[in-house]
């Protein structure tokens, strides 16, 4: 075999197996959610943990899940969770709602991971 052919084949295999190409957005979004959010949150309706459940969070008013003890800052924030608000909050919760009660969580630095998490939260049934 020619060396150039081997390089091309290896490059194509690498692309096919990389997370951005080999997995669908839902799977990579779920993985990003699990890595950054699942310690405290679920997407199962009614399943509040350390943090409130995030089932149908898009379009919901912040601090409004029943039977969850939100901070006063979150309850009075007047935020309705849309894609933009979620992206900003996931990046730096304290900058968006000071006193939010999510310490020691400080946010997700990767813009790609934040976008994946929001896409996952926006997906049907989440």
Automatic annotation (TrEMBL):
The keyword Nucleus does not apply. PROSITE patterns: CYTC (PS51007). InterPro entries: Cyt_c-like_dom (IPR009056), Cyt_c-like_dom_sf (IPR036909), Cyt_c_1A/1B (IPR002327). Keywords: Electron transport, Heme, Iron, Metal-binding, Signal, Transport. Residues 1-22 form the signal peptide. Pfam families: Cytochrome_CBB3. The keyword Signal applies. Residues 24-125 form the Cytochrome c domain. It comes from the Bacteria. This is Cytochrome c. The lineage of its organism: Bacteria, Pseudomonadati, Pseudomonadota, Alphaproteobacteria, Hyphomicrobiales.
């Amino acid at each position: 075999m020619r060396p150039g052919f081997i390089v091309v084949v290896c490059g194509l295999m690498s692309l096919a197996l990389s997370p951005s190409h080999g997995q669908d957005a839902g799977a990579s979004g779920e993985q990003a959610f699990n890595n950054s959010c699942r310690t405290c949150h679920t997407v199962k309706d009614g399943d509040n943990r350390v943090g409130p459940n995030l089932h149908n969070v898009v379009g919901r008013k912040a601090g409004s899940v029943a039977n969850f003890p939100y901070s006063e800052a979150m309850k009075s924030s007047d935020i309705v969770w849309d894609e933009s608000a979620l992206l900003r909050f996931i990046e730096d919760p304290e900058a968006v709602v000071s006193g939010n009660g999510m310490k020691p969580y400080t946010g997700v630095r990767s813009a790609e991971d934040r976008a994946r998490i929001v896409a996952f939260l926006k997906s049907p049934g989440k």
